[in-house]
Amino acid sequence: MKNISAKLLIFFIFILTILPSCEDSGERIPYVPVNIIIYPDLPEYNTIKTPMNHIYLNGGYAGIIVYCEYADSYKAYERNCPHNPSHPDAILDVDSTNLFMVCRECKSKFSILYGNKVDGPAKNPVVEYKTTLFNSALYITNYN
Predict the structure, then answer these.
(1) DSSP 105-138
(2) CA gap 40, 95 in Å, rounded
(3) I need a labelling partner for 124 at 20 to 30 A (CA). Which of 4, 54, 92, 104 fits?
């Protein structure tokens, strides 16, 4: 009887170690310096001047989402999902309502106003970059 119990215990431990976890992977988005300047008055960025509009930029680790909260107030977020950042599809896209960012891979949903998780398996908020509007330039950085 002891032999069967030991085999069952080993079997259950094995099963538990190979099952995928619903928890965050423990990975963090790698740090990359961000120091971007855009000019919202230029034609290629002009749509960002309208509240609730967004644009995608190259930069950060997997790209950046810039969102116009209201006139002259902007938010900038890393496009890499914090749930499983090494997955190639862990990219955030703004949904059709322009209120949420949704991960292509895990389907976690984040508020575009605050960066916090609204739904899905992610445990951490989206990485937010600092934005400063000075004269006609919008500075996007990840350092003070």
Answers:
(1) TT--EEETTT--EEESS--SPPPEEEEEEETTEE
(2) 22
(3) 54
In this structure, what token pair is assigned to residue 144?
């003070």
CB-based burial, 48-73: b 16+ in 10 Å, e otherwise: beeeeebbebebbebebbbbbeeeee
C-alpha–C-alpha distance, residues 38 and 59, integer Å: 12
How would residue 65 be classed by pLDDT, with cut points 50, 70 and 90?
A: very high
- Over residues 13-56, the pLDDT tens digits come to 444 343 344 444 568 999 999 999 999 999 999 999 999 999 99
Q: How far apart are CA 2 and CA 53, in angstroms?
A: 66
| Phi–psi pair at 16, nearest 5 degrees | -65, -30
Q: Which residues contact 8 (CB under 8 A, 6 or more apart)?
A: none
Q: How many CA atoms lie within 13 A of 24 on its CB side?
A: 14
Q: Residues near 2 by Cβ (< 8 Å), separated by ≥ 6?
A: none
What are the structural domains of the chain?
32-141 (2.102.10.10)
